[in-house]
Structures
1.
Amino acid sequence: MTSGQKACDTSTIERFLEGRLDADELPAFEQHREDCPACRECLESRAADADCWSDARDDLPRDCAATRGVDFDGRSTPSRGEILRNRELLADAVDVDALLAMVKPYLAPTDDPRMLGRVGTYEVMGIVGAGGNGIVLKGFDAALNRAVAIKLMSPRLADSGTARRRFSREAQAAASVVHDNVMAIHAVSETIGLPYLVMPYVRGPSLERRLRNTGPLAVPEVLRIGMQVAAGLAAAHAQGLVHRDIKPANILLEEGVERVKITDFGLARAADDASLTRSGVIAGTPQYMSPEQARGEAVDHRTDLFSLGSVLYASCTGRSPFRAESSYGVLRKICDAQPRNVRDLNPAIPIWLVRIIDRLLAREAQRRYASAGEVAALFELCLAHVQQPSAVALPDAA
């Protein structure tokens, strides 16, 4: 196989976005990318499909830094050598040295030798992780004495107008939704020509990491997650926004599942945005997108309800409802097939919860619930019933 063929291979592009190309492969791919419009288009498209930044963070030791630093409360953090000696704590796709080399040119000098540098007014304490469109740093906001997460757009996409627009749209969309279950945006700015946004530093895994580590969740946890995600979506929909990429990696579990936060609004669009409703455009994560998304058709807020149903299916069973060996195969199944019954995979799930999930997963949008607010209210009543079955009856809607 020639180097050009290898560079055009999808797996090579995936490894590039994840920072896993070795020193011999990277220069050849960079040169190929400059000469290949198809690869450039694919890279820009993949920037919209990046996993939530927290998924990479969840694989790292809590409060770790890429070089020696201090936690915001003064506790020492491990050195880079200490981190790299504990490879079992790192994600295979996370190359701390490569990320550090990529970020360093965009950090301003700092007077604190324990820090990596500065981004705007924030001291950079360490590298948290990376996704396809950004690198996340742990920062310290001295003015408010708090830790923050700084999402820096990937330098590899610095020259991509499409990637910059998506990054800007994420900040604008998330900032317009003020809700306990939606990740807040503290600030948006640029450092040495590279845009970044500042968010709260959330301790806790993503739902994807939780499912990967522990498998299916208990019914009360499923209901609590469903209720809070639906409430966050209702707030976004009230602002006229459709998230379009609800999946376990974009759901953060702060303090267990007591508080859930939706993140990564990189694909969010206004419901009346012409570019959102035009046909033939597929954007999102295949395993969790709706049939109308998979077909590139017009979508509205009900596409997020289908994705929520897929998330709840995964929470009950430990696996996504539509699985295949390729993205194309997944899209075909979403459009044409019914997922296995939840109780076939987990008999502990009550029939009434299966029926709710099935309705969320209805292939025709009009057969799903009318709104995310309706779903949130339903799950609140169901959770009350599960917690106090003798005092609270199961709602009729279930």
2.
Amino acid sequence: MKRLFVTVVLLAAVAGCTPKSGTLGDAPSGAPPTSAGASPSGTSGETPSAAATGSAGPTRPAGTLTISLWLVHAGKLAYTQRTSPATQETSQLALTELTSGPTTVESSAGLTTGFPGGTTFRIAGISNGVETVSFSPGFYDGGRDAARLRQAQVVYTLTQFSTVTKVAFQRDGEALAAPVGRADYTDLLPAIAVTSPVIGQRRGSPITVAGTADVFEATVNIRVLDAAGKPIATTFTTATCGSGCRGSFSVRVSYRVGHDQAGVVEVFWISPNDSSHQDVVRIPVTLLA
């Protein structure tokens, strides 16, 4: 009986050590965009959060990596994704993509960036969850509000990684202020921030629509429009909080089309005063038959 008990304990200990995998979300369609504008120096010291395919040692990642980027739409933060060759320098990759600005597809959907042209950066490192990044002086041009929006883009983009909770900003190597996190920029989030689907993705039915919202009675409405702009699916869901607080939402929406075609996922809330659609977010996608 004593030998049997030891065996059971050992098996339980082994089972408790099974590794868990994670993901940063679905990969956008199309080839990875070309990046520009980042300083070649600096390292993040991170392991990618998304799993890379193929076999590779810790210093030679293989496959692809999907990262989250926060750009700008109508003066507020806007979510998108990029897929690039896998690397351990995840922060370097994320900031390189961020400084390159929106792709053609993202621009056509109204996304912009607060970053001025020619912005360069250097990552000094990470310590106790704080990542220190030095930007070229032009990053801080344009006044407090303009610089703050850029900083929010950086903070929301870098804190997708489990090793980063705050960012310490520098100007050409000189510290500016105390480290900041996402909570310092919640006012720059739109009423509805959609994280799925992503602009330019190819999606079959049902399509998952997810994100966060601070809207009237936490009610989030969704429509799927076909290539002619005709609604082919309409539904609603409830965020985990609303009417003065931000909550998350996620719903699967079924639709039917006769052939693959361009479409749009609309997310909005309805005014109780005149039933108008408010804070509409439009995500162009390809609908699959």
3.
Amino acid sequence: MKALITRKLGMTSVISEDGSVQAITLLSVDKNIVIGKRTEAIDGYSADIIGAGDTKKINKPLSGKLKASKATPKIIKELRDKSNDSTLNVGDTIKADVFNVGDSVSVTGTSKGKGWAGTIKRHNFHRGRKTHGGRSYRRVGSIGSMYPQHILKGKRMAGRMGHEQVTTHGLKVALINPETNVIGVAGSVPGPRKSMVIVKEAK
């Protein structure tokens, strides 16, 4: 399984060979190291534990787990491998060139937080009539009936919008720069700049 922990740099555009302009998102790959493995025999599933970045503050329990890889990662993620065909070993370094231009990938990130939002912005509710006698312009409206005397779970109401884990499927790798360890993905990627983004090979 091909996977990378990256950091979003921003968006730019490139001109393809046919002359069309394509918007791409640039992602920086910061020192991805395999720090552990999960196996079917011991854990019941297959996964690679990947660490990214570098930090000086590591507690003793974590330092024991990182002893085999000799890494000091700032971010640690466990990426499951359903195909069970991973060839990575503890201590291996993963770089941007693990992908090829044209590869189909799935990108996971945390969307931008929009703060508290009403139902029109959050759920695309229709505005009330602005005519004589109408006062419910942006109100929620009815949120329940006589029975069961409480608001049902999942009712679409006002609340915090955004800041959720979002996965975008079917994106293409449009650019790879091994020297600067930067990968470019065609299209938009969830999350603000400098946020963590996980790029995985689409199955």
4.
Amino acid sequence: MTIADDRTRWLALYVLTLGSLMIVLDVTIVNVALPSIREDLGFSETSLAWVVNAYLLTYGGFLLLGGRLGDLFGHRRLFLVGIALFTVASLACGLSTTEWMLVSARTVQGLGGAVASAVSLSLMMSLFTEPADRAKAMGIFGFVAAGGGSIGVLLGGVLTDLISWHWIFLVNVPIGALVIVLSLRLLPGERGAAMSGRLDVAGAVTVTAALMLAVYAIVNGNQNGWTSAETLGLLGVAVALLATFLVIESRVRSPLVPLGLFNLRNIWVSNLVGVFWAAAMFAWFFLSALYLQLVLGYSPLEVGLSFLPANLIMGAFSIGLSAKLVMRFGFRKPLATGLLLAAAGLLLFVRAPVDGNFLVDVLPSMILLGFGAGIAFNPVLLAAMSDVEPSESGLASGLVNTSFMMGGALGLAVLASIAASRSHSLRLGGAGELSALTGGYHLAFLVGAAFAAAAAVIGGALLREAEPMAAHEPGHGAAAATETS
């Protein structure tokens, strides 16, 4: 490979990560701006949730389908379609003057984000086949996945405080246009084989509907009640659709998700780790931001800046050191170590008081979480892709993204419910408002720490390390990226 070709590969990676960063940011960037959006557009407390939920609904629902479409019709083509949709929808969000316009645009944003996210990891895997390069590239990509949520809190605070909430969306427009132009120049073209195969329409419809109904039920569970007829009914329909999907996949000639994929240990273990890890991460992003705003009285900008130390540490580890750790120790040890450090960081938040001090009560937690996320994301993403053939890399990418998405949505809903219930009990017991809020967050952080620890145990015990020979076998996916120490 020439120096020019090698340079092009790395430039293409940076373009992919820039596109992915935009999409990951939009899960969290909106949260610190919600009060401003509500005041400006006249949302009610109930309808305001749809600024977040509309995005989560289509993003979570279409990840799996987007990944498979990429396998069938070309990963580059689907990435460009997804980024274009996302960029146009971002413009509509930024120009919104009514509730319905913003919520509709957020729905389209989620769809574009799902399609682009589901194939971006596959494109990265095709660019880098050497073990060391692939591990390093995955570290950069992992930083976006791990750090994007907390960067969103930072950027949302800065833009909302210094300009206006409209710019949390409008900033995507020039970035999206740049990603499209550079993708056309730098990303590898489609191969003829990408067009082979047929789309499993029945499977696509049932699994997409199941995921969307499940996300809808989860994100509205606190508001409607977890034992309400609506919540249980929607979850029941989602389970029935998922069962129907599995029956379809076992019978069609070209299934959307070949069920044999789940016989591969690293596929199901890494996806299970992803569910627990995302639940813990969302506890960090959202609950610590609420503690800083509602208890300590931080402004949106101050909340964003509070995440900066974790972002810097996460970036240093993801981009510089995580790849070396995976190459030296394999998947399991770095993954378990990183997740346990993150669990310790969440545990430190359990002792954060009502009159907390940033240096004493917030910074140590942020530092540990930065180390943990920076170390853990590279191995979990590599493991998720380690056993699949290139023809199924889009599907594997869609699966791991779906696991993170569903884990995050479910984890956030459960933790918010736990925090609210605990705060309510403390108020009934005579505690002041700030003490009640803090007590609720403490319990939720404790459960979040348990999620991170569970992910550490599952990954550390069950992931299969790649064979040393895998580095030399063509088409063996990311298994080449690590060797047993």
